[in-house]
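If you are new to this repository, start here. Below is one unmodified record pulled from the training split, so you can see the exact layout before writing a loader.
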Amino acid sequence: MTDQLTQQDVNNTAWAACDTFRGVIDPAQYKDYILVMLFLKYISDLWADHYAEYRKEYGDNEERIRRKLERERFILPYIEFRDEKTGEVTERFLADFHALYERRKAPNLGELINIVLDHIEEANKAKLEGVFRNIDFNSEANLGKTKDRIRRLENLLGDFARLDLRPSRVSEDVIGNTYIYLIERFASDAGKKAGEFYTPKQVSKLLAQLAAPSPGDRICDPTCGSGGLLIEAAAVVEAQGSPGNPNKDFALFGQEVNGSTWALARMNVFLHGKDAARIEWGDTLNSPALVEADRLMRFNVVVANPPFSLDKWGANEAQADRYNRFWRGVPPKSKGDYAFITHMIETTLPQEGRVAVVVPHGVLFRGGAEGRIRRALIEENLLDTVIGLPGNLFPTTSIPVAILVFDRAREKGGAREGVQDVLFIDASRDYQSGKNQNALLEEHMARILETFHARRPVDKYAHVASLQEIADNDFNLNIPRYVDTFEEEEEIDVAAVEREIERLEAELVEVRARMKQYLKELGV
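And here is the target side for that same chain:
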């Protein structure tokens, strides 16, 4: 039996491949080359593994083998080069990683990689159309002049050639985890640019568990980045199956405005076996693509970590929004937070939909148009929970953030119609300090979730506020107004402090005298 590769084996080999680009390309950019190559290696090894199985079964009957391979998740076509004059085929090879590795010394290697990716995309239009359009392996601007570019690409192919991703050697879960691992590492290196594609895994996991998707749910992330939050939400449903038989009764939907990040999300869901996920490319606020019958699609669960306080988000067009999402009011043009929140609520199912969203703290207390929208949401009894998280959890910002949970089951006619309060949790002091970034640990998440489900006050940690109490606070949701975390300082014994000072002063006089004697003996 072939030895199985461990998660660490695969992670280490994949991360070592990044050395090809370090110091040459910004991490936020070279991640695309690495992740596309990982995806190409995976589908190539999958194809090779299955070809070997069918060869054992059907021998030299290439026709039967070809018919079997045409049912694969991803089809790898053949590429033919022809003589311009005669039209005769001069070269023919399978469009896969291994063909590229054999041609790694070719002077047009970057162009060959692009050709292979184009053919794979064309052969898998339903799944991969547009996925590779934003990546150019023959780019002089990104990869350097011809000689340097060929050397870098040859090294990249050499690194991935050592990574055996055949199903007989490594499980699909390991490959999906490696993809997430690389995205996390790229986010750490990319700093503030990471906000375009990454939400820390523990925050995603917490958000997904707060939203609590169930079997049969349609789950959406309208600003899905590279898809990590959707993967975590799917894991919550899968865990509701039996051991070894995860529950697959859910549907995933997402939209992402950045083309490169959208491509990462598409590959991410494929590597996690979520082939049916629908991930659209476009601006959620101005051009929502998740529509049916000219209406916004409705979902059981909507989760997101949208851009914080997005400027120029489209306020001028919002008044005439064809989907009437902003009927509570149009958020300010320089801060799109409530535009995303409103969109999320309007795309959930009435009387049952749930929303969990990460927001900056300003969303809790800013006035003007935002204050009016916040008041409307509270008076509609949609807001369920406000959770304050620690600062410096994200590579993009050091500010503390909050999670808002909305529950449309609290609407009239919903299963939780009788719930007429808001739970406030102050988890801002629970974290593991890190050199560059803080982290939520499992025990921190467990405490938040336990308090969330119990929905009871906890001294200096949680408070259940009535809607009247919130109204009395002028609909300001600033957490310290509701959760008192003030710690009484220990009373100081002034007399004891004075005695200690006197003792130290006497000791100091004695030390100085001894020092003076030592210096005298040394003749100094």
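Two things worth knowing about this chain: Residues 152 and 252 are 37 Å apart (CA to CA). The radius of gyration is 29 Å.
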